[in-house]
């Protein structure tokens, strides 16, 4: 597919791929598609920053060839070994027969597990090390766990340009490469979804990476996914500062699944109690909501009610999946309560209560349980619990 050449600077070109049709990215719902960004620095010793996903390898080489013969590449930088960026490396390294791969030691050992690297020319670089290309310098900066242990940034001081790999990225397919050429609200929404679903478990590592980035003069930040930040980087940096320390908004989520509407009635009563001025409240039916969206909403929620009907002494499968997914993302500094209905055998609310204790959120109260259909008194109790959630949410302002 022909895409207009895009220049980040007069001598640095975007040569990546736009994956318009991907909708599932290892269980992340990419309903706006994705991009795998690769950048070519044209210089005395040309360098390519990151590759693309394996199926796009030919496209990457064709795009490089619009600027230089790929056999002229002196360096290929691998900032991150995950296959959405490293997948095309075998094809690339075979074509770029003069190129030396630049990566850190952890990255090399990871690449060796994925690929036969025996024929590759490789130079292991350390954090802070520089490699000169001619008019440009590459400075490497280890950023472990943003997103994998081997992750690193590459900085070009002459252009005040940071190749930030997954950080500040978004799954957002677009024909326009820059932040100021797209709908900023949509980009920020996708950046939030990306952070929630990919980066959230690594908040401490993100804080360290942000501090390192903040020490650099920056004109442009070029991630490996989505748009390039040249006008609005302060907006995404500010958002990352909040997300990385689990800063919550005055927001309540009521997440549930129901069988014969009893748990649903309880959720509605919780909603009514929580729906006070200054608090955003969302009702989320777990079976009808993607895990990707759920995690995105959890990221900045202050308080959550988690509920399920009891099915064979267990919570509903959708809630089990949701809680497993959320636990893995390790959201912190939240308050929660459990609720649910049962018939002749209990199980769901108790299991959710145990989950709340395991993830170390503030548990606001014992579980609220209804046998079969909730009566008026139980719904009133739910409404009071909703008000407790709202009060907790307001306390974060
Ligand atoms: Fe886009 Fe962690 O790979």
What does this structure look like?
49% of the residues are buried. This protein is an alpha/beta fold and 397 residues long. A hairpin with a 5-residue loop joins β7 and β8. It has twelve helices and 23 strands. The model has no long low-confidence stretch (mean pLDDT 96). The strands form five sheets. The protein has a seven-stranded mixed β-sheet with strand order 1-2-7-8-9-10-11. Strands 17, 18, 19, 20, 21, 22 and 23 form a seven-stranded mixed β-sheet that branches. Helices cover 34% and strands 24% of the residues. It has helices at residues 57-65, 83-86, 89-95, 105-114, 184-199, 203-214, 233-244, 262-274, 291-299, 317-329, 348-358, 376-394, and strands spanning 6-9, 12-14, 17-19, 24-25, 28-29, 34-36, 39-41, 47-49, 75-77, 100-103, 121-124, 130-132, 137-142, 152-156, 161-165, 220-223, 251-257, 280-285, 303-311, 314-315, 335-342, 362-363, 368-371. The radius of gyration is 24 Å and the shape is elongated. Bound molecules: MU-OXO-diiron.
The counted number of beta strands is: 23
Q: Order of strands side by side in the largest beta sheet?
A: 1-2-7-8-9-10-11
Helical stretch tally: 12
Measured between the Cα atoms of the first and last residue, the distance is 48 Å
Helix content: 25-40%
Bound small-molecule species: MU-OXO-diiron
Estimate the strand proportion.
15-25%
Stretches where pLDDT falls below 50 for ≥5 residues? none
Radius of gyration: 24 Å
Q: What is the approximate shape?
A: elongated
Indicate the structural class: alpha/beta
Mean pLDDT score, rounded?
96
Q: Regarding quaternary structure, how should these chains be classified?
A: single chain
Instruction: Give a quick account of the main beta sheet: strands, pairing sense, barrel closure.
Output: 7 strands, mixed
């Amino acid at each position: 597919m022909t895409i207009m050449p895009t220049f980040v600077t007069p001598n640095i070109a975007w040569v990546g791929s736009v994956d318009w049709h991907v909708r599932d990215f290892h269980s992340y719902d990419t309903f706006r598609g994705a991009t795998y960004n690769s950048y070519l620095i044209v210089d005395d010793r040309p360098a390519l920053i990151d590759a693309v996903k394996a199926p796009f390898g030919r496209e990457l080489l064709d795009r490089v060839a619009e600027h230089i013969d790929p056999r002229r590449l002196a360096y290929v930088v691998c900032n991150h070994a995950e296959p959405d960026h490293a997948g095309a490396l075998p094809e690339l390294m075979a074509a770029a027969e003069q190129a030396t791969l630049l990566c850190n030691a952890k990255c090399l050992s990871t690449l060796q597990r994925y690929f036969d690297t025996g024929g590759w020319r490789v130079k292991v670089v350390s954090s802070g090390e520089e490699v000169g290309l001619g008019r440009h310098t590459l400075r490497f900066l280890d950023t472990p766990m943003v997103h994998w242990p081997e992750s690193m940034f590459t900085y070009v001081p002459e252009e005040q340009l940071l190749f930030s790999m997954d950080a500040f990225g978004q799954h957002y397919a677009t024909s326009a490469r820059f932040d100021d050429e797209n709908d900023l609200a949509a980009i920020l929404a996708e950046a939030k979804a990306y952070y929630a679903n990919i980066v959230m478990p690594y908040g401490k590592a993100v804080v360290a990476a942000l501090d390192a980035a903040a020490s650099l003069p920056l004109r442009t930040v070029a991630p490996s996914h989505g748009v390039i930040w040249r006008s609005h980087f302060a907006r995404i940096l500010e958002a990352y500062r909040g997300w990385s320390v689990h800063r919550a908004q005055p927001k309540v989520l009521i997440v549930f699944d129901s069988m014969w509407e009893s748990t649903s009635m309880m959720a509605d009563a919780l909603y009514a109690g929580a729906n006070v001025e200054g608090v955003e409240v969302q009702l989320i039916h777990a079976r009808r909501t993607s895990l990707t969206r759920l995690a995105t909403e959890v990221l900045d929620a202050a308080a959550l009610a988690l509920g399920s009907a009891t099915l064979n002494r267990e919570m509903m499968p959708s809630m089990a999946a949701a809680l497993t997914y959320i636990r893995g993302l390790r959201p912190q500094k939240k308050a929660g309560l459990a609720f649910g209905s049962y018939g002749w055998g209990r199980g769901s609310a108790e299991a959710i209560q145990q989950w709340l204790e395991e993830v170390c959120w503030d548990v606001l109260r014992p579980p609220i349980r209804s046998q079969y259909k909730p009566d008026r008194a139980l719904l009133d109790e739910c409404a009071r619990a909703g008000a407790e959630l709202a009060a907790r949410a307001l306390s974060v302002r």
